């Protein structure tokens, strides 16, 4: 099979990209794969410094919003961390900083992790509501599965449990 | 024995080198970063906040189902702190200056909790061999127990809130220390480590940069902590480690089949130098111990425990060596004491010497 980029060399690399659940696949020769920059392994691709530099300077779109908002971002009301300090060191100062600098942080977090939302453990104390929400999501899937399998009794049972949990959440 | 003395003299469990795949995997580590919701992070250096954090953590430690001793780090000497770093129980960062730093350790030195490092809490579990699942299970348990007493900083979208955005989400960093002399000798190391990096893991030489690590010891760890469940992070890295172990074992067999004399010569030379040298630097010792361990794992050398590398890679390091000898030693003196210690561990080796 020929490379789908240059149509000249033998394709030896299959590049699979999954962006928001849409999967695209292309076949490339090693040279084009390298040009695509998907396999830049020489330097540490995830060093924080690289991220910050790319995040703060590289993208003209972001540069604009940066100059537009830099002075507009107030320092954290709890720990006093300024946006300038955060930008310089890439470190947050307290839990409140995350909501204070949320807009600036969001693209950085996405770039570092390649994902937007936490899916792991939820603490019991500070995450009571979230735990219930996750539980409900899980049960919804159970219910759908039961419906597909035409196991309506089970589906009804899960539905009632979901209702109960939702009520509990409202009372909280 | 005082707490501090015990910390130095007793061996950490991971150094005993047993466990699955211990011919290639030296140790498995799982670490959770956690912060308390109502206090500024250590980087802000708000002494009162950090004091209160430390107080609450020490109180929470009392109620854990494990017995952990708490060390206030400002009570320890520089040497003692460095020795804790050398046996991977705390970070270099934690040995440096900063208010209200602490370290909690259990008797086996499998659980270590850094207090007021970059985050309020760094909960670490360290096992010998390939035991990441167990490490995750235990660190999760410790975390649950602490959380009953402490109010963690947590947010639905970004999970556990950490000082550095690279730790957001699960706050989990898992790392596996591997010994790869076979791949180094067959010239396949670079390629393998590149593959590992391509699969999304970070690779770090333990003694030096890139693929030029003396001792051929590398640490592989996950790069990202947000968006995957903890079990998925562990499964991903475990899958990669399986492949690395397989490749390393193949490389060793290949060497044995194709370059038997070369390889045996190298291993016995390493033994000879280690057993008879009168002075030896850390770098030389680590490189020779790497050869020796491979010889033991290939059953070329018998009667020496394969954990020799795990043990000695800590015991011969400068701070630990000085603590074992109960006195300060300059570099030249250390080289002599290091050679003595290694000889002793290898069981003398002085049969033919008057």
Structure overview:
- The complex is a heterodimer of chains A (172) and B (354).
- With 172 residues, chain A is mainly alpha-helical.
- Chain A has three domains: 36 residues, no CATH class; 73 residues, no CATH class; 44 residues.
- Helix content of chain A is 53%, strand content 8%.
- Chain A has a two-stranded antiparallel ribbon with strand order 1-2.
- In chain A, helix 2 packs across helix 6.
- In chain A, 17% of the residues are buried.
- About 13% of the residues of chain A have low confidence.
- Chain B is α+β, with helices and mostly antiparallel strands and 354 residues long.
- Chain B has two domains: 249 residues, Creatine Kinase, Chain A, domain 2 (2-Layer Sandwich); 95 residues, no CATH class.
- Helix content of chain B is 45%, strand content 16%.
- Chain B has 13 helices and ten strands.
- In chain B, the strands form two sheets. Chain B has an eight-stranded antiparallel β-sheet, with helices on one face. Chain B has a two-stranded antiparallel sheet with strand order 6-7.
- In chain B, a hairpin with a 3-residue loop joins strand 6 and strand 7.
- In chain B, helix 3 crosses helix 12.
- At the A-B interface, helix 6 of A face helix 5, strand 6, strand 7 and helix 7 of B.
Question: Span from first to last CA of chain B?
Answer: 37 Å
Which protein chains make the most extensive interface, counting residues with beta carbons within 8 Å of the other chain's beta carbons? A-B, 39 and 47 residues
Query: Could you give the order of strands across the largest sheet of chain A?
Result: 1-2
Mean pLDDT of chain B: 92
Q: Which stretches of chain B of 5+ consecutive residues score pLDDT under 50?
A: none
Radius of gyration of chain B: 21 Å
Number of domains of chain A: 3
**What characterizes the major β-sheet of chain B?**
8 strands, antiparallel
């Amino acid at each position: 099979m020929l490379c789908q980029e240059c149509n000249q060399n033998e394709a030896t690399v299959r590049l699979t990209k999954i962006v928001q659940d849409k999967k695209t696949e292309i076949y490339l020769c090693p040279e084009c794969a390298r040009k695509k920059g998907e396999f830049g392994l020489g330097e540490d691709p995830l060093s924080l410094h690289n991220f910050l530099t790319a995040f703060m300077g590289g993208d003209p779109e972001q540069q604009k919003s940066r100059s537009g908002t830099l002075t507009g971002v107030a320092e954290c009301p709890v720990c006093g961390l300024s946006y300038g300090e955060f930008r310089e060191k890439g470190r947050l100062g307290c839990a409140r900083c995350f909501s204070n600098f949320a807009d600036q942080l969001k693209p950085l977090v996405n770039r570092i992790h390649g994902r937007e939302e936490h899916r792991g453990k939820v603490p019991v104390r500070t995450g009571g509501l979230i735990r219930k929400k996750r539980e409900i999501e899980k049960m919804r899937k159970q219910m759908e599965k039961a419906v597909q399998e035409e196991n309506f009794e089970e589906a009804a049972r899960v539905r009632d449990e979901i209702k109960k949990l939702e009520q509990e959440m409202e009372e909280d | 024995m005082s707490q501090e003395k015990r910390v130095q003299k007793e061996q950490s469990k991971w150094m005993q080198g047993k466990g699955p795949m211990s011919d290639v995997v030296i140790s498995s580590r799982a670490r959770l970063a956690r912060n308390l919701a109502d206090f500024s992070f250590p980087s802000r250096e708000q002494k009162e906040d950090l004091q209160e954090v430390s107080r609450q953590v020490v109180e929470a430690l009392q109620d854990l189902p494990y017995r952990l001793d708490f060390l206030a780090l400002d009570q320890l000497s520089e040497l003692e702190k460095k020795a804790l770093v050398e046996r991977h129980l705390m970070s270099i960062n934690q040995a440096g200056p900063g208010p209200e730093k602490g370290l909690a350790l259990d008797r086996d030195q499998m659980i270590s909790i850094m207090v007021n490092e970059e985050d309020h809490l760094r909960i670490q579990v360290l096992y010998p061999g390939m035991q990441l699942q167990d490490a995750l299970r235990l660190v999760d348990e410790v975390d649950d127990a602490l959380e009953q007493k402490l109010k963690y900083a947590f947010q639905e979208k970004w999970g556990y809130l950490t000082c550095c955005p690279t730790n957001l989400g699960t706050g989990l960093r898992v790392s596996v220390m591997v010994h790869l002399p076979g791949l180094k000798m067959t010239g396949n190391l670079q390629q393998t480590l590149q593959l590992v990096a391509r699969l999304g893991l970070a690779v770090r030489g333990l003694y030096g940069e890139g693929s030029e690590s003396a001792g051929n010891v590398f640490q592989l760890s996950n790069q990202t902590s947000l968006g995957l469940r903890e079990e998925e992070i562990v499964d991903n890295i475990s899958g990669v480690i399986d492949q690395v172990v397989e490749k390393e074992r193949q490389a060793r067999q290949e060497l044995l089949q194709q370059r038997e004399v070369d390889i045996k010569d190298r291993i016995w030379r390493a033994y000879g130098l280690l057993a008879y040298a009168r002075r030896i630097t850390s770098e030389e010792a680590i490189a020779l111990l790497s050869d020796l361990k491979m010889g033991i794992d290939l059953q070329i050398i018998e009667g020496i425990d394969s954990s020799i590398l795990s043990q000695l890679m800590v015991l011969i390091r400068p701070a630990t060596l000085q603590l074992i000898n109960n006195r300060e030693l300059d570099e030249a003196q250390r080289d002599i004491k290091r050679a003595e210690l290694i000889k002793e561990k290898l069981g003398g080796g002085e049969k033919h010497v008057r």
